Amino acid sequence: MNLTRSCRYLLYNIRRIRPFLTRDSAHVLVQSLVISRLDYCNSLLAGLPMQTIKPLQLIQNAAAQLVFNLPKFSLVTPLLRSLHWVHVAACIRFNTLMLSYKAKNGPAPIYLMATVKSRTVPRNLRGSSTA
Predict the structure, then answer these.
(1) 31/45 Cα distance (integer angstroms)
(2) 7: Cβ contacts below 8 Å, ≥ 6 apart
(3) Which of 111, 125, 3, 15 shows the shortest CA–CA distance to 57?
(4) Who contacts 61 (Cβ-Cβ below 8 Å, separation ≥6)?
(5) 3-state helix, strand, coil in the chain (%, to 5)
(6) CA-CA distance, 92 to 43, in Å (whole number)?
(7) Which of 25, 47, 80, 84 has its CA 20 to 30 A from that of 90?
(8) How many whole angstroms separate alpha carbon 64 and alpha carbon 60?
(9) From the CB of residue 91, how many other CB atoms can be counted at a distance below 10 Å?
């Protein structure tokens, strides 16, 4: 993937200047250069197998380790929690669900609202009966 290659290159360059950065400045730099690329149009990745998404998760893990200046084999989940970053697969799912919610209920563009229609069931379901 071209995205993973460019993110790895950015992480490599940030790692070279990391000794001169504070944790907060490294966080801002990684967030603006790397994480924003991972988040851009990630709802297009919905439905892909995990083997396709795994390289993106590895990029996010390496970015978290870079922010905290930790070695490669350190645990990543506590780092992601403290940075308030969500796993890539969960972020893809959230963005897809948020886009569909907005398309159904209001603040989405007109062309998306026209494609989403409520499904009506032709018969009564067990939970909908009042008897």
Answers:
(1) 20
(2) 34, 37, 38, 59, 63
(3) 3
(4) 76, 80
(5) 70, 0, 30
(6) 5
(7) 25
(8) 6
(9) 21
Using alpha carbons, select from 11, 13, 18, 51 the residue that is nearest to residue 35: 11
**CB atoms inside a 10 Å sphere around CB 63:** 27
> With a cut of 50, which residues of the chain have pLDDT below it?
none
Q: Which residue has the tokens 């989403």?
A: 116
Residue 80, judged by CB atoms within 10 A of its CB (0-12, 13-18, 19+), counts as middle
User: CA 71, 86, 92 angle in degrees (round to 5)?
Assistant: 125
The pLDDT, as a whole number, for residue 21 is 96
Amino acid at 24: D
Q: Which residues have C-beta within 8 Å of that of residue 6, sequence separation ≥ 6? A: 37
End-to-end CA separation in angstroms for the chain: 57
pLDDT at position 120:
80
Measured in residues, the chain has a length of 131
Record the tokens describing residue 30, joined without a space: 């990684």
pTM for this model (two decimals): 0.84
Residue 10's nearest CA partner among 127, 43, 24, 2 is: 2
